[in-house]
Amino acid sequence: MAAPERKLKVAIMGAKGYPYVYGGYDTMIKELGERLVAKGVHVRVYNHRALFKDRPRVVNGIECIYTPAIESKSLTQLTHTFFSMIHACLSDVDVIFVVNSGNGPFGVISRLFGKPTAINVDGLEWLRPKWKGLGSTYFFWASKMATKFYDQVINDSDEMRRVYLELFQKDSKVIAYGANPRESVSLDPIKKWNLNSRDYFLIVGRLVPDNNADLIIEGFLKSNSKRTLVVVGDVPFADDWANRLKNIQDPRLLFTGYVTDPNELAALYSHCYAYFHGHEFGGTNPAMLKALGYGCAILALDTPFNQEMLQKGKHGRYFEKRAESVKKIVEQAELEPERMEGLRLTARSGLTQKYNWDFVTNQYLEVFKSLAKI
């Protein structure tokens, strides 16, 4: 009688944990982890202990390990991954999967222990305005170290693969971020803000300089639009730049702060006149995928990443990094309601197979099996 096939054991670390969903990496771990469990994989996720009051060992079939960190704005994430990496290397997991290029140097630990590893390096962290000086230097160095110490580098867009080839002479495997499209979303969840369908423009994202909310707000307020600009998002710490934006007094501006209710967020996307995407650095962006999945007309900053996601204008229109360009695209959008409706009707077709979570999971599983030699 043949011995039962051994379960592949995968450790995942570098985000806040499971089932905590706050950002793109947390969402990816949830979507990927649950699907891997359904395929018979033993999944272990390293959770940031301080974020979890209740600490069950197993949640939805996923093993949760709660590791500590040095709690500070710049050290929390890195020290959490450091402790998690030590724990995983001393365990019987077959493969270690790390997210975030800032964790690049920790690959030297798994290399010393002989544990196969993969890392998803995300975007151009070293160019983000929040990482000035030493932070920027660290992220560039850490991203380079990721290409030296990890067995498989994963990027989520063809443009990021090109960047890593050019800067670090390292090829990577492209596995996109997944999307969950939805149709026929009720308006009811957003009536609390007195919003009506198609009566507002929308921004979704952290209030940080590289998402360019300031530029979009300035350009919008210069326009002759009578609609509202709804800004969803905030920052989890006191910040002068974000506070300056939130203190702008104009009846056409609505700051909702964080919106954690998925039905409210779905309604905000689904009923907007147009969704503004000002994200400047990075590959496949989760907020953009949501906008496509909810059938939004998309107005995006003209970057190589946004050109790739919107198939060079097939599923959206572009503005330049100037307030006048934003003003112009707002006024054009309002003069062309038929064209905006056309973008809404075709948005979901922009979610090609590569953005399907099941397809994404199968690609990751192939990588993990190859690394584990199973």
From TrEMBL:
Q: Which residues form the Glycosyl transferase family domain?
A: 193-343
Domain DUF1972, first and last residues per copy: 9-179
Q: Which InterPro entries match?
A: DUF1972, Glyco_trans_1, Glycosyltransferase_grp1
Q: Name one GO molecular function term.
A: glycosyltransferase activity
Q: Which domain of life is it from?
A: Bacteria
Which named protein is this? Glycosyltransferase family 1 protein
Instruction: Tell me the organism.
Output: Algoriphagus lacus
| Entry-linked Pfam families | DUF1972, Glycos_transf_1
